[in-house]
Amino acid sequence: MIRKHLRALGLLAIFVGWSSAAAGPAFAAAITPAANTGSGATALAQAMLADPSRLVDATFVAHPPTDVEFPVLPTGTSDALSFLPTSGGTFGILTSGDVSQADQPETDSADVGLGGAPIRGDTDQDVTILKLDLLAPAGANCLRLDFAFYSEEFPTFVGSSFNDAFIAELGTSSWTTSGSAISAPNNFAFDPTGDVISINSTGATAMTAGNATGTVYGGASPQLEAATPVPSGTSSLYLSIFDQGDGALDSAVFLDNIRFETVGNPVVECVPGAAPPPTPGPTPTPGPT
Length: 289
Known about the structure:
Blueprint: H1 2-23, E1 31-33, H2 38-48, E2 55-62, E3 75-78, E4 91-95, E5 124-135, E6 142-151, E7 165-170, E8 176-178, E9 181-183, E10 197-198, E11 219-220, E12 224-229, E13 234-244, E14 251-261, H3 266-269, E15 274-275
């Protein structure tokens, strides 16, 4: 009942947002939605990669259905919002709802069900999986990326079965859902307890309302980075986001600066897991008032 009430409020907020847009408000960011096509996936990749020449191919392995008459797209690129970009002038956004809402005031509600049925178990909905085939430079042995996770589920549904998540995998994508559980053995962007990044993340990856400043979402992680050893040649990077439990109350991940590095000891200097960068991240960019 609570979530149905929240959904109703969200739809009202969206309607009000359209009305306000007609009056011409100033938003904090320029967001360009990405179509569910190869060119859309490529645009996302180019915005996120530190060196776009490393891209071999970009595809959507999974994508929620798109309404032909009223298209709502869950992914896109932006120029400046919250902690990102961390490299260059653009970054990528993956959401489980409407990407164009990301820079709306927090008083709005990110709550757009896209009708995407489960594809990896029984509780994942509105799933996007972006696959990037990347060619490592000669001698590179570590892949690293910057990101922050955002969710409208926070803080009301912390500890519940509504556990939207972000997962990053290299080589193989094998995550699954079952009830309130998420299994992601190949995920290299996990929290200090080894769990996926979600509203239930702990320690240095935990979400706060303040971290979501400037966005529509109720809470966010701090700026984080994740790394994993990478073999020579071409490897596939899988970036996934989804609602869990139902399609209500959306989540997002902002991604940038996907890069290759050459480190002396990958076991020590390229350890999987998500953590804040060695130097403090920027203060979130203020949103519209």
